[in-house]
Amino acid sequence: MSSPQTIAVIGAGTMGAGIAQACVLAGFLCVMIDVDEERVARGNAAVASALQRLVTKGKLSDGERQIALARLHGTTDYSALRVCDLIVEAAIEKEAL
User: If we measure between CA atoms, which residue out of 21, 16, 20 comes closest to residue 39?
Assistant: First the structure.
């Protein structure tokens, strides 16, 4: 089995955004999925903000931040999972959703 190249994170909340951040910093492409565009936007903003904090602390260059952000793709389209090698579920535990 080969190493994953693209990782999906289902859920763009605090946990999902943190997992997505770790994935893009490790060099993986990451698809972060949630149920609506507002949640996806908040997840993308959380990752961007966390990466900016790392730049401010001198732990990441601005170029590295930009490269990491380019690896992140937020969406509500579950068909994006088709290209993923690994899927991580970080969604809220509400059966109705």
Answer: 16
Over the stretch 43-64, which tens digit does the pLDDT of each residue have?
A: 999 999 999 999 999 999 999 9
Q: How far apart are CA 17 and CA 40, in angstroms?
A: 9
DSSP category for residue 29:
E
Residues 6 or more apart in contact with residue 78 via CB below 8 angstroms: 33
Sequence-distant (≥ 6) Cβ neighbours of residue 61 within 8 angstroms? 55
Indicate whether 96 belongs to any domain. Answer: no
Residue 69 belongs to some domain of the structure:
yes
AA letter at 11: G
pTM: 0.91
